[in-house]
Amino acid sequence: MSRTLSESDSKDLLGKYGIPFLPEVLVSQADQVEAALAGMTGPYAVKLCGQNISHKSERGLVRLGINGVDAVKHACQELLDTARPEDGATGVLVAPMATGLREFIAGVSVDPIFGPTIVFGVGGVLAEAIADVTVRLAPIRRYDALDMLSSLRSRSLLETFRGEPAVDLEALADLLCSLSDAAISIDGLESIDVNPVMIVNGAPVALDALVIFLAADGES
Amino acid sequence: MISNDHFRALFDPRGIVVAGASTHPGKFGFVALHNILSCGYKGEVFATNRERAEVLGRLTVADLTEIPHGKADLVFVCTPATSNPEVLRQAASVGIKAAFIASAGYGESGKAGLELQLELVELANKLDMVIVGPNGQGLVSTPSSLCAQIVAPYPPSGSIGIASQSGNFVSSFMNLSRQSGVGISRAISVGNAAQVGILDMLEYFADDPKTSVGLVYAEGISDGREFADRLENVCRQIPVVILKGGASGLGARAAASHTGSLATDDRVFAGLCRQVGATRASSVAEAFDIAAAFATLPAPRGPRLAVVTTVGGWGVLAADAVSNTSLELVDLPADLRNTLDGLLPPRWSRNNPIDLAGGETKDTVPTVLNAVVGHEDIDATLVLGMGIQSNQGRLEREGPFYPDHGLERIVAFHDRQDSRYAEVALAASVAADKPVLIASELAIGDPNNAAVAAVRSTGHYCFASAERAIVAMNRLYERTLWLDSFGPPSGER
Known about the structure:
The complex is a heterodimer of chains A (220) and B (493).
Chain A: E1 3-4, H1 7-15, E2 25-27, H2 33-37, E3 44-50, E4 62-66, H3 69-82, E5 89-96, E6 103-111, E7 115-122, H4 127-130, E8 133-137, H5 142-151, H6 169-185, E9 189-200, E10 203-206, E11 209-213
Antiparallel strand pairs in A: 1-11, 2-5, 3-4, 3-5, 6-7, 6-9, 7-8, 9-10, 9-11
Helix pairs in contact in A: 5-6
Chain B: H1 4-11, E1 15-19, H2 28-38, E2 44-48, E3 74-77, H3 84-93, E4 98-101, H4 111-127, E5 130-132, E6 138-141, E7 146-149, E8 157-164, H5 167-180, E9 184-189, H6 198-207, E10 213-218, H7 224-235, E11 240-244, H8 258-262, H9 265-276, E12 279-281, H10 284-296, E13 304-309, H11 312-322, E14 328-329, H12 334-341, E15 354-355, H13 364-374, E16 380-384, H14 388-398, H15 407-432, E17 436-439, H16 442-445, H17 450-457, E18 462-463, H18 466-484
Parallel strand pairs in B: 1-2, 1-3, 3-4, 4-5, 8-9, 8-10, 10-11, 11-12, 13-14, 13-15, 13-16, 16-17, 17-18
Antiparallel strand pairs in B: 6-7, 6-9
Helix pairs in contact in B: 3-4, 5-10, 6-7, 7-9, 10-18, 11-18, 13-15, 14-15, 15-17
């Protein structure tokens, strides 16, 4: 059995390597919401966070575009009530809502023959059907990161797009280089998902993260 | 430890022994000896046959101990697997450093065979010999006029070095070499790669002054990290073109994560190639196109491509093909446009692709080509439409009116013009030290066409289509970008 980190712990770990996450607050009770929202502007995104939760959207554990303190409190309470004991729930993540038309997926996958690899591709609901993905062995150089971006078949997504500015390629390359640092520095890694990476006003913002470790020796 | 001395013994032996020479023309031991004797090898050739039977009119010896010490460096082994340990011991005792083992019955045949294979490697290591194979088809080394293989063809000489995990792909590449005239330095099928494999060959090619580009067919890869690191080291020295067959056979991955399910074997290999500077090709034809381009053209310094065509349609397709690459179909610089205005009728395209609009007179094409290729804002030039005149000439020559009605004179003129265009294009390439690519389906449709023959006779490659030429050009440019990404080489500023 592999071991997963909660979204919040995954983000704390990867944030140290420079992955650009939103400022967000983990609350364990609905009555902490008001304090958590200080300094944030709505609308808000609210997600149940727990060590064994890896497919939040499928289970309806993500609530997006919520306006006002009361509505956020209400959503927090609902999510906490939905938690199952096996989720290992630690609370609810409250963050300002990020909006953008373009989503990418980035991550680390440990290949049985080649070791840790850096993965980058087009994200969103059609990601698996489009399968526009590029891979490199970790560590990558900055040249490789930029080459990954230009290797996408859908690289026109990185240009100005339906009223949104062109993607900051240097910032996106930074994100991939940060993942590479994480991939070679973190021991016992099985995989990292940073999904989605949303393009907000041209800048990449990582909205979710999942770090999975290999089972330690002797575990099954 | 296998050294370049071992590889010299393998590719440039002073003498060769065929172990297990056979009188039966269907046996490996006959074909190998036949091919060695038929392609001009200058060293001494020996053959063993248990009954001392004459093979191809030559005397044989019963075993290797009868061969004078130091006369041969390579043994080509066609004897049964069970005899081979003794063959290797005897070979070592007469000073032989290299063995190519064509015999089957090793790792490919199951567990017992694998056992024999491991024992053979252990023995070779102890004897300080390099062994290639077993279960390989042989090797070719044109600097030594050596065709030590159980298959055809023997290719023209050149600077492409081939290493393959399948002997049949060695033949495929060499068939294209023979067709196009772009030649081979060394070619080897590594068979089961028991002691040395693709990378060992590539590392030798990188050191080999006769080889300027590596061309590889690979299937399974075991030690991934080491493979990547060693391949990168080779790619820093020479271009490597890789055709890869088969997935790794690991099947579906555990899909605990999205990225894990997206990082398929094929994508990992594709990414690794780009990262280490190797050029991955998707077909035999594309692999050879790219290897031939590396072997015959100077490296492009930038992406700016000019297309020169005698007819419109080809230029349009070429422009489409460029849009899928890192190349740029540059706007013609004003001074070049002015120059061409003075050379061409007003209906010429006045942009890139440079469509001559059928307006060429006797000297137009050479003058235009020199102006375009030599211009400082053009990094590479693709020439389309060569061979049209001599193609009409062929129809006329084969028709019922030839040689009357002035046909003899005009047909000869067409042939001369097409030869001259090709020669001028390639001379301009050399003078400017920039790639000039010539593409025509006549490369396949009529290899004797005057333009195609002229390209071949200058040692260059006639691409079979504009699209294929552009794909190859793009890969050359990508290698330039990759090499540039490391900054200027040390010692240069």
